[in-house]
Design goal:
alpha+beta, three-stranded antiparallel β-sheet, transcription
C-alpha cells in the first residue's frame, strides 16, 4: 500500500501542474498546452504594411466624419484618424463609429445634408 505522504505529494503535484493530456500510456510524453494566437496585433500589422505599400499619409485637422445611409441613419466618427493617398483617391478612416439618427445630429449637420435627405 502507498504511503499517505506520497499520495499527498502526488495530489499537490497534480494541483500544481494541472491535468495534462497524455498521448499514450504511463511514462509517455504529454501534449503541450496550445495557447490561442492573438490575431488582432497580427492583423493590425498586416493592414499597416498594406497601407504603406499604397503610400498613404496621415491627414490631420479633420474633426468628424459622417456616412449617410439610405435609412436616415448616419455612421458618425467624432474624432477619426484618417490616412489617405489623395493622388489615388484612397482613404482609410479608423476610430470608433456610432450609428445615430439624423435627428440626433441635426443642429450641426445641416450644412452637410443634400436637399434629398432634408425632405424626409
Amino acid at each position: 500500500m502507498e504511503n499517505p505522504e506520497v499520495l499527498e505529494a502526488r495530489k499537490r503535484l497534480a494541483a500544481k501542474f494541472g491535468d495534462n493530456i497524455r498521448i499514450a500510456g504511463k511514462g509517455s510524453m504529454r501534449k503541450k498546452k496550445k495557447n490561442p494566437h492573438k490575431t488582432n496585433q497580427v492583423d493590425d500589422k498586416k493592414v499597416k504594411n498594406a497601407l504603406k505599400k499604397l503610400g498613404v499619409q496621415p491627414l490631420p485637422d479633420i474633426d468628424e466624419v459622417n456616412f449617410f445611409q439610405d435609412d436616415n441613419n448616419v455612421l458618425h466618427f467624432s474624432s477619426p484618424q484618417i490616412e489617405g493617398n489623395i493622388k489615388d483617391n484612397f482613404f482609410m478612416i479608423s476610430g470608433k463609429g456610432e450609428v445615430k439618427s439624423i435627428r440626433d445630429l441635426m443642429p450641426g449637420i445641416i450644412p452637410h445634408l443634400a436637399q434629398k435627405i432634408l425632405s424626409f
